[in-house]
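Lecture 7 notes: from sequence to structure.

We start with a single chain of 191 residues. Read the sequence below before looking at the structure.
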Amino acid sequence: IDEGAVAAVGATYAELGIDGDVLDLMSSWISHFRAPPRSLTVQGMNAAELEANELASAALVHDLNADPILPFADASFDDAVCCVSIDYLTRPAAVMREVARVLRPGGRLAFSDVIADEDMDEATRADMSQWTGCIAGALTQTEFTQALAAAGFTGIAIHPTHRVHTAPHAAVTRPPTPTRTSPSPAPPHGP
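Now the structure, written as tokens:
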């Protein structure tokens, strides 16, 4: 992502006070915090990139598409973040349920990503070249909200920022708060 987007993500994390024990989902060599949180566990698929993340307290190489189950105890983190990566998940709802499980009461999940327009055409969604630009895998605002709600999150707010294509726009999803009810178990396949 460009410098302006990096600055916006860092500003959002600072504004929201995401500074405790944090899980950075689908992370890499940078986590976009202006100031490091108390502890930062980075999860991703590239060990070298995760090791290069100077803010990380711990790193976990784990493919969430192969296994959406997070290998952490219930209530392990104060907050979780995911920057421009949710659109690569094959089972985003299952991952969101897992995030709700590993967050402490009152924990928040903050996404920054591409949100597809509700009427994005199927040709764009099927165009594999659009996957590299985060376009084809983008969820709509309705899909995002439904997946978060199904995972047990409440207080969901999505704030579009700017257009990145004729069909989707970039957005910051303000962190919803997970309810303390047990979310339904993840289905073996599907969203």
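DSSP finds five helices and ten strands in the chain. Keep this in mind for problem set 3.
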